[in-house]
Amino acid sequence: MRLSTVILPIHRWSEGQKTWQRAEELGFHAAYTYDHLSWRTFRDGPWFGALPTLTAAAAATTRIRLGTLVTSPNFRHPVTLAKELITLDDVSGGRVTLGIGAGGNGFDATVLGQEPWTPKERADRFAEFVPLLDRLLTEDAVTQRGTFYSADEARNIPGCVQRPRLPFAVAATGPRGLRLAARHGQAWVTTGDPKIFETGTPEESVAALRGQIEKLGKACAETGREVAELDKFLLTGFTPDRGRPLESVDAFVDFAGRHRELGFTELVLHWPIPDSDFAADQQVFERIATEAPAQLG
Predict the structure, then answer these.
(1) Which residues share a beta bridge with 231?
(2) In angstroms, rounded to a whole number, what is the distance separating the alpha carbons of residues 247 and 267?
(3) Percent of the chain predicted with pLDDT > 70
(4) Which of the four pLDDT bands, split at 50, 70 and 90, describes residue 281?
(5) pLDDT score of 47
(6) Mean pLDDT score, 112-140
(7) Are 254 and 288 spatial neighbours (Cβ–Cβ below 8 Å)?
(8) 195: DSSP letter
């Protein structure tokens, strides 16, 4: 099981770069960031763009993988996104993973002046967005006419450093999203079941996650793929456990072990942010990063 972290883009780079470099020093497999224009309780404070931040992080590090958790169609178009991703993959020397999801309601859904999309429209757009992005990252020139997204002789030469393209980590829990993960993903991402976040128990969360993985397996079977081919990411902090796994190394190892048994191959921990939902003891967090992997095997 790999350990990774997600670093919110809330600091000017003169300070922020130290966090990305520290994540590499601690041995995290990857460091991701949210791809939003702003987010929830951080909306009225500093918040920087994901792809420029990742480009700077690529220049400030040498080994750690980098990526988004997650990008969505809310304010992205596949043609422009593909060009930026190819550039980021080049700058990083092939260290980029694209986390991608259907998006949701909230600031990003309305900031461009549009009405929020219905769940069906988000699913419809996602089903068109991902295959077109796949083509744009693997073909030199793409022309495609879609209901929501089109490309007219879009050129993407020389393509990604990673071949045939950088990996997709598809965030999904519904049937259509899981089918996209099965067809186009190298990994699958979940945050758990949001319906039980407030009132559920850790045991109920494990059961819900087991059910999600079973559905992913069925989606893979429908496409003739083995579910074991996909890495399985859990973005932590959104299950009923909340911040308790970060209270001690032992608590984290127990949490990680239960989720490894479900089949998860990567756990992503939020870098501590004081006075927020992601508050945690920095020293304990760093001990988890350095000591827990050996205990997990």
Answers:
(1) 187
(2) 16
(3) 100
(4) very high
(5) 98
(6) 96
(7) no
(8) G
Q: Compute the Cα dihedral for 106, 50, 79, 99 and give only its sign.
A: negative
In DSSP notation, 222-283 reads HTT--GGGSEEEEE-SSSTTTTGGGS-HHHHHHHHHHHHHHT--EEEEEPP-TTSTT---HH
Q: Select from 75, 183, 187 the least CA-distant residue to 131.
A: 183
How many C-beta atoms lie closer than 10 Å to residue 273's C-beta?
15
> For residues 61 and 49, is the Cβ–Cβ distance under 8 A?
no
Q: In the predicted model, is pLDDT for residue 297 greater than 80?
A: no
Taking phi first (over 0 means left), then psi (-120 to 50 degrees means alpha), and beta for anything else, what does residue 285 get? alpha
Tokens of residue 40, six digits: 């929830």
**Is the pLDDT confidence value at 127 over 80?**
yes
Facing residues of 189 across strands?
171, 233
